[in-house]
Every structure is written in C-alpha cells, then in structure tokens.
Design a protein that fits this description.
By secondary structure, this protein is mostly helical. Helix content is 83%, strand content 0%. It has helices spanning 3-35, 46-55, 57-88, 95-122, 124-164, 169-185, 194-220. The longest helix has 41 residues, at 124-164. It is elongated. The two termini are 19 Å apart.
C-alpha cells in the first residue's frame, strides 16, 4: 500500500476518533444534566441543599462520575481541534496552543467540580445542612473556573476561524458571541447571584453544543485536521 495513502487513512481515523470523543462528551453532559435536574442554587439555604442531596444521593454520585468520565472524552476531542487549528495556522501553532491550554484548564476545573460534587453526596450525612450548603456552593462556583478555560478555547478558535475560515463564517461569529457570554458566566466563580448563575448555566449548555458542532465538522471533513 502507498505510504501516503496509509498515512491518510490512519490520520482520518484519528481525527474521526477525536470527533467521536466530542459526541460522547455531549451525550454524557446531557445525561449528567438530567440527573441533577431540579438541583438547588447557591442562594438556596443549606437545609434545602442537604434535603435535595440526601434524597437524590445515588443520582448525584452517578452524575459526578459521568462528568468525570466526560473529561477524557473531551480531551480526546481537543486533540482533533488542536490539529485543525495548527493546520490552519500553517503548521506553527500559536493560538492553537492557547486553545489547548484553555481546554485543559476547563477540563481540570470540571474534574475538580465533579470531585466536590461526589464528595458532597458521599459525605452528606457528616456535612449536615451547613456543610452541605458550603460544599454545594463550591461545586456551583467551580463552573466559573470551567468557563474561564472555555472562553479561551472558544475565543482562540474564533480568531483562527475569522483569519483563515477554518470553519463556516457563521460559526466563527457565533463563537465570538459565545466567548463573550462565557466571560459574563465566569463571574460565577466569585458571585452566587441568581442572574449570574443563570448566565453561567446557559453558557455551559451552549459551549457543549459548540463542542458537538466542532465534532460534526471534523467528522464530515477530517482533512481539516490533516497535514
């Protein structure tokens, strides 16, 4: 077999594997969101939080595990996006490195949030209402740290797309808007107001859809990430 053809086939498979990782991530996030539906906000009382977690302990624990499992999947996806950005930048990664760092930061922050969520559910009896309120707030505010990484990931990708038309123009413009939304949502790292929490939740949802869209682009056209 021609070595160039073999390399192309292998490269296509790895890009599509990365795209599949993004799709798996999206599915896990959807299941996770359904498991913790109706969860208390950071402004709810510790007693309300304690009651919710105690009643749904198993669901919260599974949700924490699924969110943790989603991170290896999204890092696999990130490898495909990094290759695509590097190719668009002419083989010398610049903003691609920034995007990679943003993705790694978001994944690390999310795993930390999942750990806090799992700990809260596992030790809910020991924590009591006061402790449950504090730990639950820590879990919710970790969303802000995740969005800090995502705004860098999405923002860097948007700039590359605007410069090179790596992806569709509408997607580049939407990415800019989404990065700005993520900036606002990131304020939840230090504030527990309902308005900021709602913005953060919307930003996370749209960011997940954004990841799925990139996965679709890479699956349909693996050459975007090939030398």
């Amino acid at each position: 077999m021609d070595s160039r053809h073999a390399g192309g086939v292998a490269g296509t498979m790895s890009v599509r594997l990365a795209a599949l990782g993004g799709a798996v991530y999206f599915v896990l996030v959807v299941v996770y969101a359904n498991l913790i539906s109706g969860a208390p906000s950071a402004t709810d009382s510790g007693r309300e939080t304690f009651s919710y977690v105690a009643r749904h302990q198993d669901r919260v624990q599974i949700a924490a595990v699924l969110m943790g499992l989603a991170m290896p999947a999204v890092l696999l996806w990130l490898s495909g996006l990094f290759r695509a950005l590097t190719r668009a930048e002419g083989g010398t990664p610049a903003l691609a490195v920034a995007a990679l760092g943003g993705g790694a930061l978001a994944a690390a922050s999310t795993v930390t949030g999942a750990l806090v969520l799992g700990t809260t559910a596992t030790r809910i009896t020991d924590l009591g209402p006061g402790g449950a309120g504090v730990w639950w707030t820590m879990y919710l505010l970790s969303t802000g740290a995740t969005l800090l990484g995502l705004l860098l990931l999405i923002g860097a990708t948007a700039v590359v797309c605007l410069q090179t038309r790596l992806f569709a123009r509408w997607f580049a413009v939407a990415s800019v808007v989404l990065a700005l939304l993520s900036v606002v949502g990131a304020f939840t790292i230090g504030y527990d107001t309902s308005g900021i929490q709602i913005v953060a939740g919307i930003a996370l949802l749209l960011d997940s859809v954004w990841i799925l869209l990139v996965s679709i682009f890479l699956w349909r056209d693996p050459a975007l990430a090939l030398p």
